[in-house]
Amino acid sequence: MGTKMSPNIALVTTPTRLAGLLAKFGTKGSARFRIQSARSTYLSENASAAAVVDADADFEEYVDEDQHYAAAVKRIRGDLEGLGYPVVPVARNYISNFYFGMTEAVVVVGPDGLVANTAKYAGDIPIIGVNPMPDRFDGVLLPFQVDDIRKIVRQTLAGRSSVRRVTLGDVTLSDGQSMLAFNDFFIGRSSHVSSRYILYSGNQSETHSSSGVIVSTGAGSTGWLSSVYHMTCGVGRTLGHQSISPPKIPWDTDALCWVVREPFLSRSSQVEMVMGEIRDGIPLRLESLMTEGGVIFSDGIESDYLVFNSGTIAEFQIAKTQSKLVV
Length: 327
What we know:
Rossmann fold, alpha+beta, six-stranded mixed beta sheet, Tumour Suppressor Smad4, globular
């Protein structure tokens, strides 16, 4: 028989940069030496002494960051104890495998991207983002400080906290595989070569050769989507055309926005359908024409992807469940 879980509070954390270095090099001494060696080799011999000093300072920053993060996690876990629920630690690499069905609240200890990654798996369970290092993390998705945590979790468990609802994106492949996005999806080739596909929206379709497609949520509209707009506006201004502003999409709106990156016009590819919206009853469908290397990933996590090669059709629509961020 499997272990029966009781209602709990999930405490989501991420490895620090120092932890990543230790996993790769084994010890602090080895990690420090590798950083110093790389810096010294890169710069000229006359500057190498200064480079070692700079590398030492960089490494000490890694150590300081690790210590601050560990102290914040320890403090938060201690404050969560005694609220009537067991605290279950969840490392970033195991979020996708964690069962949130018995979780009453999810506490995420920054950075911001960890909240976005967690939201895809937590369903409608309230997510509380904590900024453990305000001097290092922007905190757009981390409205609370370490000192706030016990009070805000208690309010959340009692149903008295304010929440911000966030519309997610959903993609389902023709073989049944699916994925959610908090910010955006990328659809295209895994390398820097042209992506080929047929795009279907409404009653229209086009064959494309491009650098891929971005499907963005409201939460992601200030990220990758905005960069496409800034590029387009910059080119337009250079050519003397009127500038346009990136769209401001509310986080809870029932719509997603899609754009085609660098569409190429040829005898076999068109460039008329380069932007549009996804709404209820109006999905976006893409049919892959790529024999290999086609991928779909969300929120910039390239290692977690769906294979999108020839014979696969992907349908993008609004997810049925919104995320709930405590604010």
